[in-house]
């Protein structure tokens, strides 16, 4: 039986079909943005052509450490989600689903919760959970399950431990010195660093996440077709038993142990245990020596912790290496695009375009309306630049300058950016790509559901950012 699509779902499918035909890859937007900013610097500022060229070239490689850090967020998350203990957990959790709506709600909740921990982990973990649930609840709409597995990326992740903007603001050396100077504002914010206690650990951020969770779960509950009204995996011609690679790999791994001295070392568990003990001891000493352990969290030690968990859960160096190998294709876009965004940020700061853009924000808003404006702007720009970290590198100079002028809590500005940034992922398929292959689906197959969530969340996010922002003082 054909699924009875709502008018909004039909509109979403039509919009997706248009974007797939006419909208180019995200890398093209990075190139176009470079041309636009280069031209703006030449036309709207006193900077000369050689000065702009030099600013772009000097900044092009400044984000190499951050590029590697963001690549590791994806890789370590993938490694953790594909470990044998996680696969056993997924099979256990999938057994909790007994109806189509219950199945979709289950995957939605785990997608939201896991994305707070790490968005790379959430993408793979939730996709694997959705496929396992589809095997058990065979009458569930397979597209709804796939969409549910992605919803953490459209909501909670940007307010969690892997939030790109929050990590950038909390990690020394992750931003250019000139950007830190803007945030510091003459020493008002020491070192231009904003710790997690002023961003994702604010009680206002927790309230926002709780409200978003309730709204998203309710929307997906009512958007899921009843049994017989949707399209199951079988209806779509998808074989859910075609992913037995892990079991086969483990069998080959056991066979290989001891075949040569080299492979014997590759399967030697004490090598992994040594790394876990060494790294765990370091992290313990690092956080125990910090005056405020929660504020000591940054991108480097977060990635380090996930890598150590990968060693622990995979057990042997051989399994870890194969998991890393499977994860690396997902990061090519990050490696290619981030240097161009660094160059764009360099032009913006060197030509004082950041000051002119900041004045536009100041003229359009006041202390109360500035955070909602940032959220909306972040969502709109995110549809064309689908990378929270690189986009924040571009936006931070003028957004933070405007925040100081309007005397807005600078940590909440980061949170507002995050709330808006996540929304863009619901209508921009870039970050869906790593999991669509697992589902054997196309973006257009699931965007009807993600668009429904987007339409429900936009007014909620604007209201939350406005009201909660009014409870916070300046500057922190």
Can you offer a commentary on this structure?
The protein is mostly helical and 476 residues long. Helices cover 70% and strands 0% of the residues. α4 runs parallel beside α7.
Question: What labels describe this entry?
Answer:
single chain; 476 residues; mainly alpha; 23 helices; 0% strand; globular
The proportion of residues in beta strands is under 5%
**Straight-line N-to-C gap:** 56 Å
Radius of gyration from CA coordinates: 23 Å
Number of helices: 23
Helix share of residues?
A: over 70%
Summed over residues and divided by their number, the pLDDT gives a mean of: 83
Task: Count the beta strands.
Answer: 0
Write the H/E string, N to C.
HHHHHHHHHHHHHHHHHHHHHHH
Low-confidence stretches: 243-249
Total of domains: 1
Alpha-beta classification: mainly alpha
The global form is globular
Biggest sheet record: none
Strand-helix topology:
Layout: H1 7-22, H2 26-44, H3 49-59, H4 64-81, H5 84-94, H6 100-117, H7 119-136, H8 142-150, H9 164-170, H10 177-184, H11 203-223, H12 245-256, H13 261-266, H14 269-289, H15 299-314, H16 317-327, H17 332-350, H18 353-364, H19 370-382, H20 388-406, H21 410-424, H22 433-439, H23 443-469
Short description:
This protein is mostly helical.
């Amino acid at each position: 039986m054909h699924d009875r699509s709502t008018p909004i779902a039909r509109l979403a499918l039509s919009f997706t079909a248009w974007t797939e035909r006419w909208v180019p890859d995200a890398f093209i937007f990075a190139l176009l943005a470079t041309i636009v900013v280069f031209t703006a610097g030449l036309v709207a500022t006193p900077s000369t052509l050689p000065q702009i060229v030099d600013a772009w070239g000097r900044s092009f490689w400044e984000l190499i450490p951050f590029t590697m850090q963001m690549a590791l967020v994806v890789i370590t998350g993938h490694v953790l989600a594909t470990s044998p203990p996680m696969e056993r957990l997924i099979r256990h959790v999938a057994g909790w689903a007994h109806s189509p709506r219950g199945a979709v709600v289950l995957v939605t909740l785990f997608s939201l919760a896991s994305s707070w921990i790490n968005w790379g982990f959430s993408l793979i973990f939730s996709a694997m959970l959705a496929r396992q649930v589809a095997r058990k609840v065979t009458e569930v709409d397979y597209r709804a399950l796939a969409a549910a597995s992605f919803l953490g990326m459209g909501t909670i992740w940007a307010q969690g431990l892997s939030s790109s903007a929050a990590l950038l603001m909390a990690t020394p050396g992750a931003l250019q010195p000139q950007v830190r100077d803007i945030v510091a504002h003459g020493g008002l914010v020491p070192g231009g660093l904003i710790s997690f206690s002023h961003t994702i650990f604010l009680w206002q951020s927790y309230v926002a996440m709780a409200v978003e969770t309730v709204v998203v779960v309710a929307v997906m509950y009512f958007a899921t077709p009843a049994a017989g009204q949707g399209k199951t995996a079988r209806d779509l011609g998808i074989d859910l038993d075609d992913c037995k690679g892990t079991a086969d790999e483990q069998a080959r791994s056991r066979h290989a142990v001891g075949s040569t001295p080299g492979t014997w070392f590759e399967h030697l568990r004490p090598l992994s245990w040594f790394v876990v003990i060494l790294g765990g001891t370091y992290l313990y000493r690092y956080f125990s020596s910090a005056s405020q352990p929660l504020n000591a969290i940054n991108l480097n030690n977060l990635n380090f912790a996930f890598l150590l968990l990968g060693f622990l859960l995979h057990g042997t160096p051989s399994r870890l290496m194969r998991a890393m190998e499977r994860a690396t294709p997902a990061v090519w876009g990050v490696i290619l695009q981030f240097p161009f965004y660094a160059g764009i940020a360099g032009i913006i700061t060197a030509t004082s375009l950041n000051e002119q853009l900041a004045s536009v924000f100041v003229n359009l808003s006041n202390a109360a309306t500035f955070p909602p404006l940032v959220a909306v702007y972040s969502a709109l720009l995110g549809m064309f630049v689908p990378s929270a970290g690189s986009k924040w590198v571009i936006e931070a100079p003028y957004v933070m300058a405007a925040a100081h002028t309007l005397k807005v809590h600078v940590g909440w500005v980061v949170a507002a950016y995050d709330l808006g940034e996540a929304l863009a992922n619901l209508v921009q398929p870039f970050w869906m790509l790593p999991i669509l292959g697992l589902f054997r689906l196309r973006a257009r197959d699931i965007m009807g559901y993600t668009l429904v969530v987007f339409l429900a969340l936009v007014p909620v996010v604007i209201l939350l950012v406005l009201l909660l922002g009014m409870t916070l003082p300046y500057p922190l």
